[in-house]
Amino acid sequence: MHRSVNQKKTLFPLAAVSLSAALLYSGLYGGTAVRAEAAAAPAAVSSPSAADYKAFLQNQYKIELPAAPTKGEFIQDVAKVLKLGGASDGENRFTDLKTEDPAYAAAQALADKGVLSGGTLQAAAPLTEDAAVYIALKAADLEELAYTYPEAKIKSALRKLGIDYPGNPKLSEQAAQELAAAVDTGLLPAAWHGSFGLGDAASDDLAADLLGSILSFKGAYKHAIGSVADADIFAKLYQAYQTQDLIQVKELQAVVDEALKQNLITGYNLKDSRYSADFDPKRSLTYGHDDITHAVQLIGLLRSEGLNAKVQLEPKTSAFVYLKEWGEPKQTDSYKVVQIENGNYIAYAKEYDLAFEFDTAEQKAKFQDVIFQYAKKNSEDAKGLIAGSWWQPLYYSLTPIDAYKEIANNKLAEGHYYAQTFSLSDKTAEIASGLQKIQPGAKVESYRFWVDEPFYNYLLGGYK
Fold it and tell me: CA 62, 422, 425 angle in degrees (round to 5)?
């Protein structure tokens, strides 16, 4: 669908400028298709380190690991990453634990799930490496696998730890099975195989690696389809895009569609939090677009410039007002319209966000230079740009970054779906209040973030 510049600008009255990336769905951003030249790929992304996991645990769960964790502290952290609630109403499972103890609720919740057995807990004792593994294995739902292990498989796995089996007085058969399964599945990372010791005090790094492994096995760690350096990243990108459909959430859309009708907002996005990348904010950017060829060429461009990042494609549906004077809209599987009372339409367009977690903060900062040179249109006859380049490319950071501008988001959630609308910062309270009037009691999450200057200028009413 193509619109003229004048038509496009009617969507942004300066008195109340707010929008989502939906408003970028237009021929306004057309550009010349030039594929990025091939170049040597950067090194592939390595497995997460303890530092990676620590940053994630702090960002997502507010977990700060002590240098020498106790068993009780580790149990509390395991309960947090499993998102377990308070203690059960049943009897206390542990003879040495009182209701006022910090680990009480977490221990009862883990006992309810079969991660801990009743009896004596010893919450104040130092966490040992083997105890941490036994807890983590059950928390990761690997116990049935472990209990299939015959003696030969146990012996082979524990040999990697330098542990003789059978005949080790520190290991029951069940404990040996659990430890062996942790080795074979990678729950206990290979980096620990050479130093692991039964009864040794666990460090914060081991605790972080095991908590990270639990999250990974539960599908709750960072979500990525791959990295820029991966040979198959382009195939994975296409598969992720082609298997996404328009997001439709009736009750949630009723609220934000009414906000469109009232001119409270000029557009919004619908997204699904199950696809959220959950990357490290200090090294991450989110880039929005509607053209999959642009995404493929963008990743090729980053590779050619020596930038490497984890990549996640987050499905997105963008909604905006389609004016009746633009003519009868053409509908497809990825573009739908619904006529509203004044004769205009609300259009719903399939788009995407690409979340990037760069190897370093310096690479994140360099991203803008690459976009300005190869993916930003500055004239109608611009040459040397990747396919589908826009006048105002949209990308943003959740942490401050030089030369970016602060704007705001208002977010309204229903289950794992959410609607969001971007605006100038001084419009945040007005939009949040308006949404709450449409749906009394609605919980609107408002926050600030940082966007590229061309998109900020777009919010001000300029199209270049």
Answer: 80
For Cα atoms 135, 56, 296, give the angle at the middle one, nearest 5 degrees: 120
The tens digit of pLDDT for each residue in 293-313 reads 999 999 999 999 999 999 999
Counting every residue, how long is the chain?
464
User: What average pLDDT does the segment 432-441 reach?
Assistant: 95
CA–CA gap between residue 143 and residue 196 (Å, rounded): 20
pLDDT tens digit string along 188-219? 999 999 999 999 999 999 999 999 999 999 99
Closest CA to 308 of 224, 395, 227: 227
**Which pair of structure tokens corresponds to residue 400?**
């401050």
Angle at 308 between CA 402 and CA 385, to 5 degrees: 75
Q: How many C-beta atoms lie closer than 10 Å to residue 458's C-beta?
A: 26
CA distances from 244 to 102, 182, 412, 460 (A): 44, 35, 22, 32
Structure tokens belonging to residue 324: 């009746």
Nearest to 124, CA basis, from 103, 99, 107: 103
